[in-house]
Each structure stands twice: as C-alpha cells, then as structure tokens.
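Input/output pair, single chain:
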Amino acid sequence: MNEWTWKFAFWITTFLVPPLLGIYLDSLCKIGKLQLMVPIGIILLIVILLVSSAAGRALRLCGHSRKARRLTPPDKLVTSSVFSCMRHPNQFSMSFMPLAISMILGSPCGVLLSGWGIALGLAFILYVEEKLVHESFCPEYCEYAKEVRAVSLSPKCIVEAIRTLLGASKC
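Output:
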C-alpha cells in the first residue's frame, strides 16, 4: 500500500468511525438527537474546510520551486500564510472532522467518541507528519519548528486562512 492510500484510509476511518459508532450507541441506549448541535457542527465544518483549503492553496502556491501540473508533494518549506501560526494546519483542522460530523448528525455519543478521533489526528501529526517533514526539510524545518507551534487554536490562524483564500497572503 502506498503512502497516499494508507493516509487516505486513516483519515476516512478517523472521520467516520466515531460518528457512526455514536449513532449506533445512541440507538442502543435510546438517546435522542440533539438538534441544538447541528448549527454548531455546520459552523465547525466550514472552519475545518476553510483552514484545510487555505493550507492546500498555500502549499500549491508557495511549496514548489517550479510550477507543477498535478498534485505533488512540496519541494520547498512553506512558512507563510496559515503556516505562519501553525506547522500542520491541514491535518489539525481535519482532526476535528469527527466532532463536526457527530454534531451535524446530532449524536451525543458521537460527540463523546469524537475525542478519540481528535486524539488520533493529533497523534498522526506528531508521529507521522512531523517525521516526514523533518526528513524532507531539516535543518530549515528544525529552526521553523522552534518558532512555530505544531498546532494552534489561535483566531489569528483563521484570519490567515481567510487572507490566503482571498489571495492577500504572499509566499
């Protein structure tokens, strides 16, 4: 199995298992849906997609020394845009996907179980992505890692994501 395939399988499993297991447990325990969570889940999903899109755009625009025709791994370290406030914005935002899905589905058990999905996402960042980026970009990345956190919940990151999507952020 190539790297892309197992990463894709990991994230899809992480996204779907907590909410689906939560729905099953809700029905088993006869717990009703919490409709109040739905709008919050939709807002969270929008923020997740916003940050993830901004990270992808920044990598596409700033992460290549020459123009690439298709999706390719970056050959330059990106430290601007949303990457100026955290090192792994895409994976960090995607870590919250099980919570957003569980909230949209209104599943109380899914919301509780989504903590495990978030924890798996954070472990993925720290044990898989960090290693890959170190191999590709150190010593430059090692200096960057001293200055910028791996993940951040700072509102500044949302602002940077919006600026990136609007084209206001430069490489």
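The helical segments are 3-28, 37-62, 89-95, 97-105, 108-137, 140-147, 155-165. The two ends are 34 Å apart (CA to CA).
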